[in-house]
Amino acid sequence: MNTVDLNSDLGEGFGRWTLGDDDALLGVVTSANAACGFHAGDPSIMRSVCTRAVESGVVIGAQVGYRDLPGFGRRFIDIEPAALRDDVIYQIGALDAFARIAGTRVQYVKPHGALYNAIVHHEEQAAAVVEALLDYDKTLPVLGLPGSVWLRQAEAAGLRVVHEAFADRAYTPEGTLVSRRLPGAVLHDADDIARRCVAMATGQPIIDIEGGELRLSPGSICVHGDTAGAVDIARGVRAALVEAGVDVSPFVT
Question: Whole-prediction pTM value?
Fold first, then answer.
């Protein structure tokens, strides 16, 4: 039986500002990428997400990013590698504190937004994130884009790497994500998204932005929590996977 994890970005509010329906998504996904206060989230939100994730039986991961609350972490920052390393450690440690209070711990790490995209190719920043994991806890698995510099360096350093695909994002023929600034980068048709996810999870090709076939073999599929209709999309994806005989389970236990 094919097995795949479903992850989603949660805890992305700040203060009185909310984004997405964390409670509903925690009833669908198997892993929660919790914001750690740099691109979104604050201590109270982090604590709440960890508590609710434990109650829902959902694995908690640290979603680390650039220190960029105004830009939601979607703007590249030319930060010194040592400073980036320490920023990543700081974020993991902060979330891990609240996870431990809730009765668990951070169990994986996933970069967010511009950092995620930068370390597909950026050697120095990828190395800084890898160094942060080696310093903090080298047993933590890491999520990333297949073929990225980040995963190549992480695997070479002995970290467990998990290939990730995106339910609602368009792909280039090279297997990278189409920039959100371009038309068609984000998909909205729930039925089409569900069919794509079944194809991804069962080794079948999907169609890239130029109409070609692209084959992905993800260990985890991300359903974004801030997309319009996110909860219905996530429910549709999970239902379609189960109907296709795919075991929806976390990649860590």
Answer: 0.94
